[in-house]
Amino acid sequence: MKFYMPTKLYLEEDCVYRHRKELAALGSHALLVTGRHSARVNGAYDDVVKSLEDQGVSYSLFDEIEENPSVETVARAAAFGREQKADFVIGIGGGSPMDAAKAIALLMNHPEEEPSVLYEKKELEALPVAAVPTTAGTGSEVTPYAILTLHELQTKKSMSHHVFPVLSLADAKYLSFAGRELLINTAVDTLAHLIESHLNKNTTEYSRLFSSQGLKLWGEIKEALSAGELSGGQYEKLMRTSTLGGMAISHTGTSFPHGMSYYLTYNMGVPHGKAVGIFLPAFLELYGTKEPDEVRQVLEYLDFDEIGTFRKYIRQVLGTIKVTEEQITSYTDGMMANTAKLANFPYPVTKEQMRNLFETSLAVQ
């Protein structure tokens, strides 16, 4: 077994300002990477700016990161960052800005390379990256992954390089500004990380320390999440589940529910958390045909008595997604070619089983 976690993580109230000296120590000019609105609304952007200004560190802002950021956007941001002579990057927001920040930091440090290098196997170093998460979903603040949209392939894919944030500052107070739908979708993404890492070919005793604890915490807040009534310490628990899920998948990778979700997100605009969560009951059911005790343990951690109850909960909080038979066929063929995701499942998956996963999880029109 091995364990590698190079990110320094602080999960506490007002941690951005409390640890401003460590943030400022990463360089002399920061490129702040965000989306258009949320980082300003929840106060995270102001906290970062206040911390940098307090320490005399200059900064530039790139606030054009879209949901599911594209390689093209990342390349524009990297060019801007080089023009501004930034020497470190701070991703502020959900998974999209944090993932983009990692890819941007890599391209900024290698102006001689084309954006296609993101998907080439080369030994390249990125500029230092700091992460300030404002949602509790991707766990990107503690993972080396950056999931980007590849328009030429009409899907999403993790870049080939691993870039861990050097410093992550997770303050649960930002979650209170998220709406119910966003909280649910991002929390279900975390749930997928916990389940897919726990039931994974690459799982170890170390990775299960994170996934089992995260599953238990998720079970403690699931009813409040469903009711949209999170408060106080529950936000902190939710942020912890996100970091735990991220630590777990850093060592195992995700499995095929994540691969299946990319088709729904790219082709139909379904938010990632909803797109991946919709497949979790069928994933557990398939895994249970080989390892029923392990699936029962996961359900016990989550405080569900059986898969049927879990499926009912998922449908309650996520609703249904309608697709056509033609889409099922196309998505099935695509997943059977996704050897990376299939490889993380401990047992062979047939085309018939994969099609059944899509059919039982989606509403076929």
TrEMBL record:
Span of domain Alcohol dehydrogenase iron-type/glycerol dehydrogenase GldA: 6-171
Enzyme Commission number(s) from the entry: 1.1.1.1
Matches recorded under InterPro entries: ADH_Fe/GldA (IPR001670), ADH_Fe_C (IPR056798), Alcohol_dehydrogenase_Fe (IPR039697)
Pfam families: ADH_Fe_C, Fe-ADH
Catalytic class of the enzyme: oxidoreductase
Domain of life: Bacteria
Alphabetical UniProt keywords: Oxidoreductase
GO molecular function, one term: alcohol dehydrogenase (NAD+) activity
Location of the Fe-containing alcohol dehydrogenase-like C-terminal domain: 184-360
Organism: Diplocloster agilis
Annotated protein name in UniProt: Iron-containing alcohol dehydrogenase
